[in-house]
Write a structure and sequence with these properties.
Strand content: 5-15%
Number of helices: 2
Radius of gyration: 24 Å
CATH architecture: Orthogonal Bundle
CATH topology: Helix Hairpins
Largest sheet: 2 strands, antiparallel
Helix content: 55-70%
Number of domains: 1
Shape: rod-shaped
Strand order of the largest sheet: 1-2
Order of helices and strands: HEEH
Structural class: mainly alpha
């Protein structure tokens, strides 16, 4: 909400314990929201890396000899996999990552809904006396 659209504060602008609890809840949700957004961006980068890896495996497979293997990293260790095994393992990991990303996006939506409710309640009581909008970078 922009400052021009905020309702004027009600006559009683004293901060009650309930109001402070709402403000604190909003702050915690906002922090969690920032963390989730960062996590989703990280997962997007990982998915791009998986796509690049899949392309690289395909290119190597075209230029390789029958029976060649490719080193595939699992944790801190590299294992030699056939191209087919590497591709299938990469696809499984990509699907798992997409599911994790989907879960985080659902969490984000739930947080945004609760934050919107709290924001509306707090702005209706405090108007311009409170700022819950993120700061511009």
């Amino acid at each position: 909400m922009s400052a021009a659209k905020r309702p004027a504060p009600s006559k009683s602008s004293t901060v009650t314990k309930e109001d402070q609890d709402k403000i604190n809840r909003f702050a915690r949700l906002n922090t969690k929201h920032v963390d989730i957004c960062s996590d989703v961006a990280d997962k997007d980068r990982e998915l791009e890396n998986y796509q690049e890896a899949a392309s690289s495996i395909e290119e190597l497979e075209l230029t390789s000899e029958e029976g060649d293997v490719i080193p595939y990293r699992v944790g801190d260790v590299f294992f030699n996999f056939t191209f087919a095994d590497a591709n299938s393992r990469l696809e499984v990991e990509k699907i798992e990552l997409e599911e994790k990303k989907k879960g985080r996006l659902e969490e984000k939506s739930e947080l945004e809904a609760e934050m919107k409710t709290l924001k509306g309640e707090l702005y209706s009581k405090f108007g311009d006396q409170i700022n819950l909008d993120p700061e511009a970078d």
